[in-house]
Amino acid sequence: MIVKHLKDILGTKAHAAGEGWESRRILLAADGLGYSLHDTLVSEGAALELEYKNHVETNYCIAGEGEVEEVSTGRVWPLAAGSVYVLNAHERHILRALKGDLRLVCVFTPALTGEEVHDESGSYAAEG
C-alpha cells in the first residue's frame, strides 16, 4: 500500500513550478504503478500551450473555471469543477485559467519520473 500526503510533497523536488503553473507530483514512476498522479494549479489569467507527444494525459478539474483549446481545429471546451479532458491523441492544446486558479488532478501514462521539464514544444521527452 502506498500512502502519501500533499503537505509532504510541497517544497520538494516533486513540487515543480513555472510561469503560471505548479505541479505537485504525488505519484511518480518510482512508485511502480505505470502512471503518475499530479495535483496541478494553473494561475488565473495564465494560458499554457502544451503538447505531450510521448504521454497520454487525463485531467479532472476540481476548482476554477477555464477552457482548453485544441490548436489544430480551434475548438474550445469550457472547464469547471467536474470537467474531464483527455489528450489521448497527443493533441497540441492551450489551457487557460479564466476565473480563479484552475486546480486539476492529472494522470500521465507512461508515468513521469518527476525530473521532466517542458521542451520548446511544450512536451516532455520520451522515457530513457
TrEMBL record:
<dbReference type="GO" id="GO:0019491">
    <property type="term" value="P:ectoine biosynthetic process"/>
</dbReference>
<protein>
    <recommendedName>
        <fullName>L-ectoine synthase</fullName>
        <ecNumber>4.2.1.108</ecNumber>
    </recommendedName>
</protein>
<comment type="similarity">
    <text>Belongs to the ectoine synthase family.</text>
</comment>
<comment type="function">
    <text>Catalyzes the circularization of gamma-N-acetyl-alpha,gamma-diaminobutyric acid (ADABA) to ectoine (1,4,5,6-tetrahydro-2-methyl-4-pyrimidine carboxylic acid), which is an excellent osmoprotectant.</text>
</comment>
<comment type="pathway">
    <text>Amine and polyamine biosynthesis; ectoine biosynthesis; L-ectoine from L-aspartate 4-semialdehyde: step 3/3.</text>
</comment>
<keyword id="KW-0456">Lyase</keyword>
<dbReference type="Pfam" id="PF06339">
    <property type="entry name" value="Ectoine_synth"/>
</dbReference>
<dbReference type="InterPro" id="IPR014710">
    <property type="entry name" value="RmlC-like_jellyroll"/>
</dbReference>
<dbReference type="GO" id="GO:0033990">
    <property type="term" value="F:ectoine synthase activity"/>
</dbReference>
<dbReference type="InterPro" id="IPR010462">
    <property type="entry name" value="Ectoine_synth"/>
</dbReference>
<dbReference type="InterPro" id="IPR011051">
    <property type="entry name" value="RmlC_Cupin_sf"/>
</dbReference>
